[in-house]
Amino acid sequence: MISGGPYASGGYPDIDDLFRSQAQERDRKKREAMLHQIQRLMHERVMFAPIFEPATLHGVGPRVEEPAIGLTPQLYFAAPYEDMRLKKP
Fold first, then answer.
1. 8 A C-beta contact, residue 54 and residue 79
2. Which of 28, 41, 63, 70 is deepest in the core (most CB within 10 A)?
3. Nearest to 42 by CA among 54, 30, 34, 51
């Protein structure tokens, strides 16, 4: 949203200024108003477009013994798939 971000491309100086101002504002109501103004400006200028959908596979059901979800910390998807196990018949 701000032009100085690690993956930022483009930006608007007025939104950058609002962002810096709200970060230093101590009054909760004023900061809230600034954040709403930033959101309104971002919406009006259509600053974002979805570029990919993180679709992941999950094995869930009565035949799954170990779905492998949560085995690797900080991954929201099932991984590694080698650890996904089915129940023996």
1. no
2. 41
3. 34
CA angle 52/53/54 to nearest 5° reads: 115
Residue whose entry in the numeric block shows the structure tokens 């798939």: 81
The tokens describing 88, both together, are 């023996």
Q: Which pLDDT score, from 0 to 100, does residue 76 have?
A: 67
Task: Judge contact between 77 and 58, C-beta under 8 A.
Answer: yes
Q: What is the pTM of this model?
A: 0.54
Distance CA 56, CA 26 (A): 41
Domains of the chain: which residue ranges? 1-51, 54-89
38, 18 Cβ separation under 8 angstroms: yes
